[in-house]
Every structure is written in C-alpha cells, then in structure tokens.
Amino acid sequence: MATLTVPSCVPSPAEDCEQLNKAFSGWGTNEKLIIDILAHRNATQRNVIRKTYSELYGHDLLVSLGKELSSDFERSVLIWTLDPSDRDAVLVEETMRKWKPCNHGVLVEIACTRSCDELISIRKAYQTRFKKCIEEDLAVKIKGEFKKLLLPLVTAYRYEASEGANMALAKSEAKILHQKISDKAYDDDEVIRILTTRGKYQLRATFNHYTDGFGTELVKDLECDPKNEFLAALRATVLSTKCPTTYFEEVLRHAIKRTGTDEGALTRVVTTRAEVDLELIKQEYMKRNSVSLEIAVMKDTRGDYENMLLALLGHKDT
Amino acid sequence: MATLTVPSCVPSPAEDCEQLNKAFSGWGTNEKLIIDILAHRNATQRNVIRKTYSELYGHDLLVSLGKELSSDFERSVLIWTLDPSDRDAVLVEETMRKWKPCNHGVLVEIACTRSCDELISIRKAYQTRFKKCIEEDLAVKIKGEFKKLLLPLVTAYRYEASEGANMALAKSEAKILHQKISDKAYDDDEVIRILTTRGKYQLRATFNHYTDGFGTELVKDLECDPKNEFLAALRATVLSTKCPTTYFEEVLRHAIKRTGTDEGALTRVVTTRAEVDLELIKQEYMKRNSVSLEIAVMKDTRGDYENMLLALLGHKDT
After folding, report:
1. What are the binding positions for Ca(2+) in this chain (chains A, B) (predicted)?
2. Using only C-alpha atoms, what is the Rg of chain B?
C-alpha cells in the first residue's frame, strides 16, 4: 500500500521536462512546481522524465536539481528521483563510506526488506555506478562482528516461497537462538547463520516458535543492552525481517522524537517506502503514537522539505 | 571455443523425441541412437526436447533415460541433458550433501568459472529444485575454514568489467597475499576477502603483481603442502580464476592419470565445458600431456560411456 499519488491524467514527459526547466529559470526556483511534478510520478515515469530531460537539455536532471535546491529539500528530491535500485545502491555506498556502527540500520533494512531479486538489481546498480561490487567495499570498510553479520546479509539470495516453512527446523533453530542469546553469544556463528541464510517465511516461523517456546519475543530479548550497537543491529535484522511495517514505524518514530530531527532517516524511509508500503507504515505510526505521521512531520520540518515529505506521504493538501 | 557439434540440419523436437522413444523400446536400448541425438544438440535444443517429450509421452525424458541407462554412461547422459544452470545446481547440492574436503573443486570451479549472472541463475535453479537456497545448505553442511572460503565465493556477485584494474590496489593486495602465505596464515580474513570479493580482472592483475614482485607465482606458493586440502582449495580458487582452461586441463589430467579413473570429475568437466571452452581445454591437454584428450579418454574408458564422452569432445568418428 503506497502513498504516492499520480494524477489520473499525466502530462507527457516532454511537458514535464519543460515545466521543470521553467521551474529552474528566471529569478529564484519554483520549488512548488518541482514538487508538483516529481513527487507525483512513479519510478517508471521519473526514469522517462530523466531520460527525456537529458535529451532535451543536454544534462542530467539531477545535476540541475542539485544546482537549484539545497539542504534537506535537495536531498529528498534527489534521493526520491533516483530509480529505486540505484537509490538503494547510493544509500549503501554512502553508509559504507561514512561507516559508523550506529548507521547499521541502512544496510540491515535494505538487506532484509527488499526481495532477493531487488537485492540483485541493487548489486548490479552499484557496479554500474561505482565500478566495483558491494561486497568488496563492505569487506574493506566494515570490520569485526558487523562485517560478520552484514556481509552475508547483503549477499544473500534467500528462498522466498511462502509454502511450507519447516516447523521442526524452526523449533530447533529457535532453541539455538535462545541458547546463544541467553549466553550473550550475539555474534555466534549459528546466530549469524540462521539470521542471514534462512528465508523470511522460515525465519518468521522460527521467531514464532521462540515466542511460544520461551514466553518472550526474540526482539525483546535483544533489547537488554541499549548501548550495544551490534545487539541493535541484530534486533533490526529480526524486526525488519519479521515485520517491515513495524520496523519502519520505529525508525520514523525515533527520527522524529529525538532532540533535533534525524532528517537522514526520515528522508530515507519516506522516499524508499512511498511507492511500497508507506500507507501501512502511516497506519502503524498512528496506532503507536496517537498522532498521524503527517502531523508529526509538519511539527518537525518546515518549508519545501516539509512540503516534499507531505506530498510523498499522500497528504491531501499537497 | 566449444567442442559440441550440432548437425547443420536438425530434426524437429518431435522427431528427436520419437527417435528417443524408439531407442527405449523393444529388446535392449539403442545407446548409439541416444548419443547421436542428445550429444549433438545444444542446451536450448535439449530443453525443447525435454519439454516436447514430456508433452508427448507424459513423463520426464530424464526419468526414461534413468530407467534405460546405467552407471557412468547414465550419469554422463543425465548430467549433460540438464539445463546448464540446473546442472550446476545439482552438482553443488550433491557436493554439499556428500561433503568431503577433497571435493572442494566442484564448488570452487562453479563459483570461479561461471559469470556472475550465471551464478545467480544457478542460485535460482537451486531454489526451484530444492526449495531452499544454496547458502543455507552450505552454511549448515560445510564448517570451519572451508565454509569461510566457500560461502562468500558462492554468494559473490563480483565486478566483471575488464576496464581499469586498479594497479595500486593490485600491488598492495599482492603484498598482503604474499605476507599471509609466507606466514602460512592461509585462512586469514584478508586472504579470503581478496580472493572472494575482487573481480576476476582485478585478481589477475594482483596475481601478476605477485609474480613480478616476489619472483614466484601465487599458485606455486600454494603447492607447499600437498596434503593440506584447504591449501588445495585456495590454489584451485586462484588457478580457476586466473585461467579456467589451465585449471580444467589439470582436473582432467588428474582424473585420467590416477589409478582408477575419476569418472565423476571426467564427466563433470566434459559435460559442463563441451558447450563453453572444451576445445581450448583439449589444446591445453595436448600441450601438457603430448597426447590428445580423445586418445586419453579412449584408453581410460569404454563402451557407451566412452562413446558419449568422445561425442561431446567433438571426436570425428562419433
């Protein structure tokens, strides 16, 4: 359930490009016009607009946007306009280049909430853009237990069919997870193996067996030490695999509630989910915070950035 | 340069199926007819024959072949008839199921001599056939240093473009490899990282820098302990990445020269390379052994198995 709204009658790509070019011309930039066009076109339409713009004006639309816009608004428009696989490749590269353990979420959520074929497209887009493969960068830039978790997570091509989770296996692996977590052996080979190689449906069965067998959720058991970033990465792996909607609601909640909004996370979740499941995430946000995500965004952001996010959130007045 | 020969005028798939069905009927099986057809059809043609056979006779051609044939001949025909990605998936599964460190070659050669897109097709074929993913089986069945090498090797999606190997990087990583190999730190993280994540062209530049800088080939430096199977796996990784033709010649040479032919390896190399580069491997074999691969095969095998291999080797009289 996406939040993206596309008008029933969409102008031709050439008309959109002409309007965008107009928005860049003369005194000042017409930010509203940019939002009106780009925030209401789907990925295929945006790709055609970029291609047409390049043919008509001889340079990349993203370069023009970069010259005209600035700050969080610029980033939200640029990140949104990119093709989804290319966008994820950019997010992955940026996260690895500026690697800090507290930024594990970007890599975990891309690895765990995209389909296996989407992950392959992201790896292809990464090669096209950066002339190297994700795993060679990851293996150089990320060390220790984080590498041990993230490398197999990002390179996985997991079994996705929903038929027939193996219940005996789920039970035995729930037991292994419980034993290792109880022993605080968080980066144990078996924990990593289970979380990074089993398919999503199999893992959900394992998490259910964990709850049934041990009377507590695995996610809860991974909350025992809030300062342990690796534990947080494991928890993100489990939560984003178990229920992406709940995971993304939590990322948004933390981005908005902390002192000084985390615009990076806010932009990332809104732009990457607007065409996927942002409607469900909004419902989850409302349930959890008793305030709508739009209202929360209005309180925490302003100007063109606010308008861009609200447009992607499908807010009625934008 | 393939050795497979396909007649200039190929019968229709229905005619081929009719002939195959005839070969199975009456007293005894007409093995020659089976070879005449299947060993002279390319992968696409064999796929269409299987599909047509199933439509015409209501069961899988492979099942019929399995009932009629036996021993090494059976295996060579079945393995050959499979679609290449599916065939590799079968070889991978079989190797992991009956895992012995001395069988590392099958996994290493599939990971290092297939293109990254072929590797993805193999991973898809594995899921379709076995309802799970390669990495979850590999991570369960293979332990220790072999897992450390083979898991990233099989799951890699390496950068393949030939333009611009990074020479400074090649030099520095040749130095790392030399240091670690000198220290006998064969399963060191850095050795594994370099060999499993760098693209083939980059690695070849690294191997050249190794030779230039240290006066000996990396492959030679990995021959110091013939009894160390992990060292042999590293050597196979380097050799099959550096030069698949040389690697496959060596596998064939060892398969033929040892006491009692290694039919498993012989069948595997002939069937998996007949449509790819077996002509080059044959030339390499002739150079290295002063006898043609066909003559060597004739000396070491017999009957229908011999005829099947010779047909795939493009032998004139078959």
Report:
1. 24, 26, 28, 68, 256, 258, 260, 300-301, 306
2. 21
CA closest to B158 among chain A residues: A133
- pLDDT tens for A298-316 read 999 999 999 999 999 999 7
H helices of chain A, where? 13-24, 31-38, 43-57, 61-68, 71-81, 84-97, 104-113, 116-130, 134-141, 144-155, 167-182, 189-197, 200-214, 218-221, 229-242, 244-257, 263-273, 278-289, 293-300, 303-312
Alpha-carbon gap: A288 to the closest alpha carbon of chain B (Å): 35
- Ordered by start, the domain boundaries in chain B are 13-69, 85-242, 244-312
Q: Can you say which residues of A are annotated as belonging to the binding site for Ca(2+)?
A: 24, 26, 28, 68, 256, 258, 260, 300-301, 306
Q: What's phi and psi for A77, nearest 5 deg?
A: -70, -45
Choose the CATH number for A244-312 among 1.10.220.10, 3.40.50.2300, 2.40.40.20, 3.30.40.10: 1.10.220.10
* A172-226 pLDDT, tens digit each: 999 999 999 999 999 999 999 999 999 999 999 999 999 999 999 999 999 988 8
Instruction: Examine the pLDDT at B317 and tell me if it is beyond 70.
Output: no
Helix (H, G, I), strand (E, B) or coil at A160: coil
Q: What's the burial of A11, exposed, middle or buried (CB within 10 Å: 0-12/13-18/19+)?
A: middle
Mutate which of B120, B129, B131, B135 to disrupt the A interface (most A C-beta within 10 Å)? B135
What is the rounded CA–CA span in Å between residue A180 and residue A174? 10
A13-69, CATH topology level? Annexin V; domain 1 (1.10.220)
The answer, for B123 touching chain A at a CB cutoff of 8 Å, is yes
pLDDT of residue A317: 64
Q: Which residues of A touch B197 (CB under 8 A)?
A: 133, 135-136, 139
Do A244-312 and A85-242 have the same topology in CATH?
yes
Instruction: Please judge whether B156 and A133 are an interchain contact, meaning their C-beta atoms are less than 8 angstroms apart.
Output: yes
A139 to chain B, any CB pair closer than 8 A? The answer is yes
Say if residues B318 and B306 touch (Cβ distance below 8 Å). Answer: no
Q: How far is A268 from chain B (nearest CA, A)?
A: 25
Burial A102-114 (b: 16+ CB within 10 A, else e): ebbbbbbbbbbbb
pTM for this one?
0.93
| CATH code, A85-242 | 1.10.220.10
